[in-house]
Amino acid sequence: MVDVPRQVFLDHRTYRRRRLADLARVLPVIGMVLLLMVPLFWVQGAGGTVTSHAILWLFGVWAGLVVLAAWLASRRLEPEVDPKSGPRPLLSDERGRG
Amino acid sequence: MSKTVLVIEDEPNISEAIGFILSRDGWRVANHFNGVDAVEAVRTRNPDLVILDVMLPGRSGYDILQELRASATTADLPVLLLTARGQSKDRELAESYGASRFMTKPFSNAEVLEAVRDLARD
Amino acid sequence: MGSLNVLIVVCLSYVAALFAVAFAAERVALRGRAHWLHSPLVYTLSLSIYCTAWTFYGAVGNAARSGLEYLTIYIGPSLVMIGWLWGVRKVVRIGRSQRITSVADLISSRYGKSNLLAVLVTILAVVGTTPYIALQLQSVVESFASFAAADPESVPGAGRGGDSASTALWVAAGLAFFTVLFGTRNLDANERHHGVVMAIAVEAVVKLVALLAVGIFVVWGVGGGVSETLARIDASQLGHWQMASSRWSGLIFLSAAAFLCLPRMFQVLVVENDNETHLRTASWAFPAYVMLMSLFVVPIAVTGLELLPAGSNPDLFVLTVPLSQGREGLATLSFLGGFSSATSMVIVASIALSTMVSNHVVMPIWLRAHGGGATVSGDVRNVVLLARRLSIVGVLLLGYFYYRVSGGGAALASIGLISFSGVAQFLPALLGGIFWRGATRLGALSGLIVGSAIWLWSLFLPSVGTGVILPASVLEFGPFGMWWLRPHGLFGITGLDPLIHGVFWSMLCNTTAFFLVSVFTFPSPMERLQGAQFVNVFAHSTAPQGWQGGAAQSEDLMIMAQRILGAGQAQALFQDEARRQGLAGFLPEPSAGFLQRLERELSGSVGAATAHAMVGQIVGGASVSVEELMAVADETAQIMEYSSQLETKSEELARSARQLRAVNEKLTQISVQKDAFLSQISHELRTPMTSVRAFSEILRDTDGLTGAERAKYASIIHDEALRLTRLLDDLLDLSVLENGQVSLNIRSGTLAEVLDRAVSTAVQGGRLTILREPDNEMIAIETDFDRLAQVFINLIANAQKYCDAADPVLTLAVQRRDGLIIVDFIDNGSGIDADMHGLIFEKFSRVGHHKAGGAGLGLAICREVMARLGGAVAYLPGQGGAAFRVSLPEKPAIATQ
To answer: Which of C 53-112 lie inside 8 A of A, CB atoms?
Structure first.
């Protein structure tokens, strides 16, 4: 199994893992605020925003999100990946044995 | 006027041997090779005596015998039962179904002849 | 040689390379050595078909026209993937556990396997995707044209219309060929298209490298560095970005929705996914990929605006900027990037659409036309494959005609977002279906109908061009003067951007209708079952049952399954299930669990609705029991959990009881047979002896026999003596085999040798026709040839004796699978009754009461011989006639004792 069992003595680590999973869930919300909402507050009308500033902000945030997502993904946080391997399609190499 | 024997037996060689022996003795011999329509064959040919094998394709000899005994026209017809399984159980079964005579394969030709003559005399 | 000719050569070699890659990947996958094909990297790269030619070329054009707005179509999907734990993972899990084949299948399956919904989704998907395919063709044509314009040797403007049309036609035909070749090799949509996926992954790398190369050239080669380039951007006409806030947020939402709903994205994201954990990598790698794709867009746009004469098409800057600088190599690379974007999109989109069209439109019609549904004769598999191939060609033709009719140009360029907003209409039904138990079929239907009607009216029809379908007066004053129905000013709201206006109204009305109708209608039991399974896919993976079996005939089910899945896969499935139930052979009990599993397997080939209908035709009537309804009503996960444990236990009990019963039955039968054994032996020995005795007495006692008679009787005695010898030989053989005292004479050679020998020995005279596959028989084997031939002779002789067809035909089919050599002997007679299957390999058991010469020891000997040779022989049900399967290990692992 991928996961450490739920309630073993390593409570501290389990707790941290769950909070990191919360972070992983909130990450797209953070991204939405920074990428979607923040530009809405920028100067509008005649002048507009300086394009290079906008580029630096948007790509900076974007890269930050990618790095954070990669880090979270490397921690394998998703809790229920195959908890008790329910029915699943046969893998091709399991077929036709016998 | 010679009497008729109907031989109901699926092994053609055995059938031929019995036919040979009996015709030499002056019998008219008819052959039938399966169990399914054996009773019908008995009715249409109306023989004086029937030689019946137990292991027939389609229907067992015991079944045929029971049906013959149940019908009024053939209830008293002499029937010589042949079997290749010589267990005492089979003999009892044959008698309880009303076989006139019971004979185990392989038989000697003289035995068959004698049994047929006996049955015809009764 | 002109650059155009070089380009054509490069382009053709690239296409050839793609074919080679796809072909190699298929080969590797076939040999089962495809672990690297299943890497998360390949999966992530395949997701890049999101970036089509429209984004490859169009992003720069978009940036030149409206600044940073092009970023919205990348930001939306990035956020969806970063938030994979919310939605994507659930869709993928459902897709895998329910063997979903397309977005139409998902929606139809969720709402009670409704085919009407599937048809609606399919039509909408075809309408939305066709212009998009046309757009890809256009991009290829235009990029060719821009090379032609720059090529001094080509005749300027020579037959432009005819040329572009034929280019488009060639591209469409080539793509159709590739897609049919690699996209419809497997029937089961869940068996992934390795070749296609691999080719797409390669194309993904090519388009990224191409765009990065142009970008690097522009920033460092032309611009002189990062800070200089940023300064140039600020100094250019794009220096100050005027954001339209409604479009910024609206387009991010729209692209996020489309990412989930586009048929081609669903295909790569869900259907081609074979490991859920790949999502973990894709969650950051895909956003990184699209970020890199968009990184150099503004610099390229600014450079193009600076360097190229005013009025040049900014959509082609990616090509024309390097061309204008004399960098033909770079331009060629960039052309390949655009070409890759276009072709990969078209390939996957046509696979996805063809699956939908064939499963939800063609197959239901075909099944209805053929009345019997599941029990029709003929190979359903071929029909499905044909339907899929024709659909691919049809979809591509449709795209080509759309391109010809619309004439290319600006009208087509705007179609990308229109297409997005069309498929976004699936979103309420999709998300509502997987997160909300209360969503109903009628709700989904009303939402889809309302949403797509508004989309059609306010976005799609106007996009075709003013005056083509909608006259200008309607656009300005509404139909019949009803001002509140103006396509771009619905309900009197004006002043919005037309796209945002259409998306806003269609999604709002769609969601409202979906929600309200769902609230006020009552779902059918099947909908509630499916709803529970979809919404709680993580909580209880043990599926509630859709069928109460028992009445179903396993053999009928097997016949049907073989027609759809193909013989090998169906037999493996049935055998596996039988083993799980603790039964020998190929026929499991039609338990509810098995029927559900079978239906899921079938739905991988023909879609959930059709599979359900086909199983229903065999199983008949009531599909949902009271217990299952109660299971649906049980809301708490605890109760579900508890009852599923109970279910497992009672299932275990039932299974051991079944095993016990089977063993007991067999023991009883064997003891009866042991009893019968002696009396059988007696019978078999006495019968020939009777003839021997009678005729020898006749020869001895009778005088005056003719010579002919003597000869005849003597030969009868001789024949019967031989028969006795044969019987004794068989008995002896069997007892030696059973005691394991047999010594094997192992040689090596080919299977064909053994079969040749067996056929020539067994068939002497007789009417039996034997069909063989000489190519398949050239398999090297290492075994006891005499013993194997003995088995084959026996099986052929059996067919000769018992096959009751008017023109008896015996088919010998050879295949290799999982390290086994399998030889099937299938005749065209009436077969053997199911209740005899377990008995025919026992001693002295003869099928029926045919007196066919043998003593009934043949198959018993065959079974023992095969066991000694390390293989097996079994009866194979559901083949029409009697069928026996002999299997032999490729590597000799002979049981020695």
So the answer is: 67-68, 71, 75, 78-80, 82-83, 85-86, 89, 96-97, 99
Chain B residues close to C693, C-beta within 8 Å:
106-108
CATH architecture of B4-121: 3-Layer(aba) Sandwich (3.40)
C30 and C152: one domain?
yes
Beta pairing class for B49-53 and B79-83: parallel
In a domain, C528, yes or no: no
CB atoms within 10 A of CB C260: 23
Q: Confidence class of residue C470 from pLDDT cuts 50, 70 and 90?
A: low
d(Cα C763, Cα C793) in Å, to the nearest integer? 9
Task: Return the pLDDT at C384.
Answer: 78
- Annotate C309-340 with DSSP letters as a single string: PTT--GGGHHHHHHHHTT-HHHHHHHHHHHHH
Amino acid letter for position B8: I
Structure tokens at C534: 């979809």
Domain boundary residue, one of C703, C738, C773: C738
Q: Is the pLDDT of residue C760 over 90?
A: no
* Residue C476 pLDDT grade (very low, low, confident, very high; cuts 50, 70, 90): low
Give the pLDDT score at C209: 92
DSSP for residue C881: B
> C188-192, C386-390, C761-765: which has the highest mean pLDDT?
C386-390
For all residues of chain B together, what is the average pLDDT? 86
Q: Are C733 and C754 found together in one domain?
A: no
The answer to which of C117-131, C233-247, C382-396, C537-551 has the lowest mean pLDDT is C537-551
d(CA C23, CA C419): 32
Total structural domains within chain C:
4
Q: Give the tokens for residue C627.
A: 């217990």
Residues C729 and C782 in one domain: no
Distances (CA, A) of C173 to C4, C86, C180: 21, 40, 11
Residue in B84, B108, B110 nearest the CB of C682: B84
- Within 8 A by CB and 6+ apart from C120, the residues are C445, C448, C449, C452
Q: How many CA atoms lie within 13 A of C68 on its CB side?
A: 30
How far is it, in rounded angstroms, from Cα C445 to Cα C297? 41
pLDDT at residue C444 tops 70: yes
Average the pLDDT over B64-81 and give the result: 88
Q: What is the mean pLDDT of residues C511-522?
A: 91
In angstroms, the Cα distances linking C70 to A59, C63, C251, C420, C889 are 13, 6, 9, 14, 60
| In a shared domain, residues C795 and C732 | no
B96 strand-pairing partners: none
A78 or C889, greater pLDDT = C889
Which domain does C603 fall in, by range? 542-635
Return the pLDDT at A67.
Answer: 92
Does residue C845 share a domain with residue C700?
A: no
Whether C and B touch (3+ CB pairs < 8 Å), yes or no: yes
Q: Residue A79's pLDDT is what? A: 53
Both tokens of B22, joined, read: 């009996």
- State the pLDDT confidence band at C410, using cuts at 50, 70 and 90: low
Which among B47, B45, B46, B55 is positioned nearest to B14, based on CA atoms? Answer: B55
User: Averaged over C32-54, what is the pLDDT?
Assistant: 79
C783 burial level (CB within 10 Å; 0-12, 13-18, 19+): buried
C432 located within any domain? no
Residues in chain C whose Cβ is within 8 Å of chain B: 679, 682-683, 686-687, 689-695, 697-698, 701-702, 716, 719-720, 849-851
- Does position A83 have pLDDT exceeding 50, yes or no? no
B106 upstream amide cis, omega within 30 of 0: yes
